[in-house]
Amino acid sequence: MENTGLAQRIARILYDKKASDITVLHVAHLTVITDYMVIATGRSALHVKSLADDVDDALAMDGIALRAREGQGEGRWIVLDYGTVLVHIFHPEDRQFYHLERLWEDGQNRLPLPFLEEESRETPQA
Fold first, then answer.
1. Alpha carbon of 94 to those of 11, 16, 89, 91, 107: distances in Å?
2. pTM across the whole model
3. pLDDT value at residue 116
4. Residues in contact with 56: Cβ distance below 8 Å, sequence separation at least 6, in sequence order
5. Fewer beta carbons within 10 angstroms: which end of the chain, N or C?
6. Rounded distance, CA 29 to CA 37, Å?
7. Is residue 123 part of a domain?
């Protein structure tokens, strides 16, 4: 699976499992650590842990191996490392505190997520 496709697939898994505030950033020009960061928020520590498990399970079924996992114990900020894609799943308070987008977004590197665009077209604006 191509890197952009993998990042978008992870975002879709998170969306389907009711994560909120999902952001995908292309960061290859900013760091050598990874090419993409997927950032999402869970409703609670339990939800954060469940989202991480759901991503890992779905990708394992596709034959995509997880390289490393950090933060599982407390469920406040879990990082899943898939090499070219790092997944950050936050508890709402920690997401607001760390605000990773502020560090990694350059104004042009946010990937559009078609499923979010479809949802906004379907939801009438008041």
1. 19, 22, 10, 5, 23
2. 0.89
3. 73
4. 66, 69, 80
5. C
6. 12
7. no
